[in-house]
Design goal:
five-stranded antiparallel beta sheet; mainly beta; Elongation Factor Tu (Ef-tu), domain 3; disordered C terminus; 79 residues
Length: 79
Amino acid sequence: MYTGIVQGTAQVTSIELDAGHTRIVLAHPLFDTVDIGASVSVNGTCLTVTAYGSGTASFDIHNEQPKSPPSRTCALTSG
């Protein structure tokens, strides 16, 4: 569970752009004890650790593109 307590500020060590996702790698001593699958709040966005090692953690962000442009209206129903 995210407590909202800031544990520190990490350095961005790399940003890798791929066809389907973007991988960011952050460095912070806290990542010495992190596990794959751990949730980490990065600037308020909850990301999942996909790899780690030596004080770094990697996070994959999916580059989802909508199949059609978003609609400016939506249908509402009641009861």
